[in-house]
Amino acid sequence: MDTKTSPTKFMIFLLFSYLHLKTHVSLATDAITADQSFSGDETIVSSGGVFELGFFKPGKLPNYYVGMWYYKRVVTVKTIVWVANRKQPVSDRFTSVLRIIDSNLVLVDETKSLVWSTNVTSTTTSGSATSIQAVLLDNGNLVLRVGSNSSLLPLWQSFDHPAHTWLAGSKIGFNNVTKQTQKLTSWKNSEDPAPGLYSLELDPNGSNSYILLWNSSRQYWTSGSWDEHNRIFSLIPEMRLNYIYNCSYVTNENESYFTYALNDPKKISQAVMHFSGQIQQLTWSETSKQWILFWSQPRKQCEVYGLCGAFSTCNATSLPSCSCLKGFEPKLLGDWNLNDHAGGCSRITGLQCGNATSLNGTQVTQDQFQEMTRMTLSENDQYAEVGSIMECESICLNHCSCTAYSYESGGCSIWNGDLLHLQQLEASDTNGRTMYIRLAASEFENPPKSSNKGSEGHTDDKWSLVIAIISATAGFLTIIFGYFLWKKTLGKRREHRRRTINSSNLGARDGNDDTELPLIGLKSILAATNNFSEANKLGEGGFGPVYKGIFPDNQEVAIKRLSTKSGQGHQEFVNELKLIAKLQHRNLVRLLGCCNEEEEMILIYEYMPNRSLDKFLFDPSEQTKLDWDRRFRIIEGIAQGVLYIHKYSRLKIIHRDLKASNILLDGAMNPRVSDFGMAKIFELNQIEANTNRVVGTYGYMSPEYARYGHFSEKLDVFSFGVLLLEIVTGKKNGAFYHFEHSLTLAGWAWKLWKENRGMEVIDASVRETCRPHEALRCIHVGFLCVQEAPADRPTMSAVIHMLQSNEATSLPHSKEPAFSIHDMNSNVAESSSQTSTSACSKNAFTISLPEAR
To answer: Structurally, how many domains does the chain consist of?
Structure first.
């Protein structure tokens, strides 16, 4: 009988174990009591359903942690905000247990070993041990307390022990009583919550400011001192937008700390000490279902100290930012692939010391130096006065520990050991220095020839003779074939254009970029578009016609062909090729390839089945397809795309031609910013510039640009404001230019707004179904974007957060928009001294004057 029942029991046990493995089990409570414990997939959820606590696995390794995250109904993307055992993971979540033992919340692993504890001493507890419970609160605080009385001070709380996330209501500071420092410490990388190298904490020197530290020792950023009157940190101007956050500084004999609250309690926001070394303030967007970055510090990634580790450089215009020096390779390749570059790089070939000899007695070539220009120099150098650069090099070679040197005006700086915090600067940055990195001779493909003085003159004579023969031959051939070369001038121009485009495209080969864009043959494009048939034509813009193409693998693409009648040309083509190939963002159109054959200049993009925004926005038969939710999602998406090119792409870019026809819509009606032919590259630290030739579209141009050619990122903000008003109203800005002295779209909307008739501004097709406070807020933000003075316009980062604000009345005050009553002819006259007006369009088409970039 036993032999019959045992298999049955065994199968039931296996089934139960399988279900236990696969099923997420909530304890339907917000607390762990003294007689409870949980493991595996069991969790507790705060009473209001905001936060959840349980086991989680952040990466591919079988490492499990007890952590806290937003409940899935609040934030759909699993976002960890606190980790208990971040220094010591467990390998089996089903045999590891979290429970209360001896008045402490503890985690024990499969071997019953203590992994983590709240470490409350018995002298701090009172009452029965059976009444101790750990409760998860809706503000994200896990508290250990006696009984259910929430008015009593907790025995322990997670707010006193933050991990990498600063939640509203928690503190970052120092407790004079417990001698505890509340600070944020980054994860090691995206898959390892172990404490990383970067931390945010209160300045221990009493400056009432926050500082970012590398390795708990090296300060590389400060918030600036706290201004109690304006309630901001002096070096974080974004805090002036205090309609979102309300920060407070508290200091007394017991503690000193900063805390913040959200003016809108329905908002979900957090500050994160990111493993990249930046402190980031993020807000959850319920509309786009993603975290939106409000601000980050330091603004430039390469300003983070030690970001790339030893023997690696940081380049703000490349992706990834970190790369090993020549002759070095990542020390920890697995971490490097997770964007954790702190381990740095190590030598591929070891150095020789002096004129060493090998084991077999042969002479080993002396170490050599790799020249690196436009560098910021590493710290901890040793300085000596020398007579020449050769003397400086000799000093380094004679010290086995010397790894690099730099020479300038009789001064020699040498570095021993690891080189940290190297930055590769832009070509236009004059602050860079030349540094010489010591490498093994084998790292050089062509070692320097011997400088034997006896043979030097003879060698020079031979080279002089060779050069003379080559020069004479070249001159003779030039005369013979001059006529034929003149006949082929057109072909030469064609080839020059091809080389220019190829060099723009394949910049990776010279180390300037890591983007390689496919070159598509013209025959393949002709086949894909049926010889550019009218049936395949999607539309036409200032650049030329756009066709739908289908490649042999059934891949649908959009093919933009430069028209010979277009005012745009080779410069715009190359400009767009250079820019958009380097941009990767969900709200930017993606460039797939290009073609430059037989006078054709063609760009191949991902296919957007819903074409451009203007087709829906200004066509009465299509407007109903744009309900309010879609319009608001489109507004947010465009803003995110523009913010990316302004602040977070590898190049800082001003688009200069934002308008509805340049916004493409994918199959889910998500927006993609397109057409970068008129875009302008800025240096990362550049704020503004001037041009002698104005390009763009009248009606979307800011006043300072249309009149004087002065532009900055606030030009795009102005264009975005006009576009935002078009999306809300369903009216085309160009429709208000039919008569002289007529109102602009912003002027028409402003007039109704001042008469408290804001709802009449909203498109009639969505007026009854929209969320009024949201639509009115969009109108208000639009007015702020189209202010006359650039300084009065917000940044795109501020725009995104204003769109997320709950009440329109909480937004900054708006002045009357620019061009409220506008005479376009006078505007053109003002700028006529700088550009030809005959090629300019007032709204429908792009101004097609090219300019050097």
So the answer is: 5
8: left (phi over 0), alpha (psi -120 to 50) or beta: alpha
Cα(659)–Cα(610) distance, integer angstroms: 16
> At which of 443, 470, 496 does a domain end?
443
Contact 202, 173 (CB under 8 A): yes
Any long-range contacts for 242-248 (C-beta under 8 Å, 24+ apart)?
243/802, 243/805, 243/810, 243/811, 243/812, 244/269, 244/283, 244/294, 244/801, 244/804, 244/805, 245/269, 245/281
Q: Measuring CA to CA, how many Å separate 771 from each of 406, 728, 767?
A: 63, 12, 9
Helix or strand run (H / E) with residue 796: helix 796-804
Reduced DSSP (H G I as helix, E B as strand, rest coil) percent helix, strand, coil of the chain, to 5: 30, 30, 45
Q: Are residues 582 and 695 in the same domain?
A: no
Question: Is the same domain home to 565 and 632?
Answer: no
Residue 221: strand, helix, or coil: strand
Residue 480 lies inside a defined structural domain of this protein: no
Which residues are known to be catalytic?
Answer: 657
Could you tell me if residue 498 is inside a domain?
Answer: no
Residues 550, 597, single domain; the answer is yes
Distance from C-alpha of 177 to C-alpha of 197, rounded to nearest angstrom: 27
Alpha-carbon dihedral 198, 201, 206, 209, rounded to 10 degrees = 90
Of residues 266, 263, 306, the one with CA closest to residue 286: 266
**DSSP-derived secondary structure for 797-814:** HHHHHHHH-S-GGGSPP-
Peptide bond into 298 cis (omega under 30): yes
Q: Residue 585 is encoded by which pair of tokens?
A: 């963002």
Whole domain around residue 403: which residue ranges? 312-354+365-443
Full-prediction pTM beyond 0.90?
no
Final residue before a domain boundary, out of 577, 606, 635 = 606
Other CB atoms within 10 Å distance of the CB of residue 408: 12
Beta strand ranges found along 502-551 (DSSP E): 537-540, 545-550
Judging by beta carbons within 10 Å of its beta carbon (0-12, 13-18, 19+), is residue 788 exposed, middle or buried?
A: middle
For the chain, which residues score pLDDT lower than 50?
Answer: 1-5, 12-24, 356-360, 447-459, 483, 486-487, 489-515, 565-567, 738-741, 808, 822-853
Q: Is residue 852 part of a domain?
A: no
Q: What angle do CA 421, 424, 425 make, to 5 degrees?
A: 120
SS (H, E, C) 340-352: CCCCCEEECCCCC
| Per-residue pLDDT reduced to its tens digit, 312-344 | 999 877 767 899 999 999 999 888 888 889 899
